[in-house]
TrEMBL record:
<keyword id="KW-0547">Nucleotide-binding</keyword>
<comment type="similarity">
    <text>Belongs to the ABC transporter superfamily.</text>
</comment>
<protein>
    <submittedName>
        <fullName>ABC transporter ATP-binding protein</fullName>
    </submittedName>
</protein>
<keyword id="KW-0813">Transport</keyword>
<dbReference type="GO" id="GO:0043190">
    <property type="term" value="C:ATP-binding cassette (ABC) transporter complex"/>
</dbReference>
<dbReference type="InterPro" id="IPR015856">
    <property type="entry name" value="ABC_transpr_CbiO/EcfA_su"/>
</dbReference>
<feature type="domain" description="ABC transporter">
    <location>
        <begin position="4"/>
        <end position="231"/>
    </location>
</feature>
<dbReference type="InterPro" id="IPR003593">
    <property type="entry name" value="AAA+_ATPase"/>
</dbReference>
<dbReference type="InterPro" id="IPR050095">
    <property type="entry name" value="ECF_ABC_transporter_ATP-bd"/>
</dbReference>
<dbReference type="GO" id="GO:0016887">
    <property type="term" value="F:ATP hydrolysis activity"/>
</dbReference>
<dbReference type="GO" id="GO:0042626">
    <property type="term" value="F:ATPase-coupled transmembrane transporter activity"/>
</dbReference>
<dbReference type="InterPro" id="IPR027417">
    <property type="entry name" value="P-loop_NTPase"/>
</dbReference>
<keyword id="KW-0067">ATP-binding</keyword>
<dbReference type="Pfam" id="PF00005">
    <property type="entry name" value="ABC_tran"/>
</dbReference>
<dbReference type="InterPro" id="IPR003439">
    <property type="entry name" value="ABC_transporter-like_ATP-bd"/>
</dbReference>
<dbReference type="GO" id="GO:0005524">
    <property type="term" value="F:ATP binding"/>
</dbReference>
<dbReference type="InterPro" id="IPR017871">
    <property type="entry name" value="ABC_transporter-like_CS"/>
</dbReference>
């Protein structure tokens, strides 16, 4: 379970400018399997997502994941919570897909034969097996996004946080990634501008100006977001 207790995030203003509030007094208890986070650009969605695995820490309040405080148990939280960035280049670091997945698996301390078998299995599952040894620079944007997702899932996270994982993708690859995310057993927190994806979630959080202004089941949450955008 993911819990936000009176969480605020404030960043220091540059050059003596006033501090900038990013998230304001957010309380959440997230138990649903599929949670979508929607909201306008700059509303605070990524900040909220990054709080879940301790990439961002609260200025005040606490974020607790299965009993682990992200501020004091950051490493343990990150073993539990996988994070997929919008831009796969932020995540894919090795020369080939095979090496990239092997790097992700390193933490599991498998022997070589088992690790190689797992790498092959994961790449095949993501339809990347035939590209195992090519340069990652030759992959399409969609293939790279799948590789980034595969690398995170290879670490067997209990919770997956994805920050707009399909934004760079064409319709075909978006469908592939959507179906894959929908098929996962893990709890998934999905930041998205794709309202079709949000509508499939069990719960939709609408973020506006650093606050969760609506919170409920889809499609009601999606409608609340549409209504909020319509008055702008
Ligand atoms: N470290 C930081 N320093 C200053 N401002 C920041 C920092 N991090 C985030 N912000 C600002 O906080 C606001 C919320 O940012 P965030 O990335 O969480 O928004 P978002 O809802 O994910 O936006 P988008 O949909 O455009 O990705 C933005 O105005 C952003 O510029």
């Amino acid at each position: 379970m993911i819990t936000f207790k009176a969480v605020s995030v404030v960043v220091e203003g540059a050059g003596g400018a006033p501090d900038v509030p990013i998230l304001d007094d957010v309380d959440l208890r997230l138990t649903e399997r599929r949670i979508a986070v929607v909201g306008a650009n700059g509303s605070g969605k990524s900040t909220l997502a990054r709080l879940v695995n301790g990439l961002v820490l609260p200025t005040s309040g606490r974020v607790v994941v299965d009993g682990l405080d992200t501020a004091s148990d950051g490493a343990a939280v990150r073993r539990k919570v996988g994070f997929v960035f919008t831009d796969p280049d932020a995540q894919v670091v090795m020369p080939t897909p095979q090496e990239d997945i092997a790097l992700s698996l390193r933490r599991l301390r498998l022997d070589r034969a088992e690790r190689d078998a797992r790498v092959r299995g994961i790449l095949d599952r993501f339809d990347l097996g035939h590209l195992a040894e090519v340069s990652v620079h030759s992959l399409s944007g969609g293939q790279k996004q799948l590789l980034a997702l595969a690398g995170v899932l290879a670490t067997e996270p209990e919770i997956l946080v994805c920050d707009e994982p399909t934004t760079l993708l064409d319709l075909r690859w978006r469908r592939v990634v959507d179906e894959l995310l929908d098929s996962l057993d893990q709890q998934v927190v999905l930041v998205t501008h794709d309202l079709e994806a949000a509508a499939r979630a069990d719960r939709v959080l609408v973020v506006d100006a650093g606050k969760v202004v609506a919170d409920g089941g889809a499609p009601v949450g999606v409608e609340q977001y549409r209504a909020l955008m319509a008055v702008r």
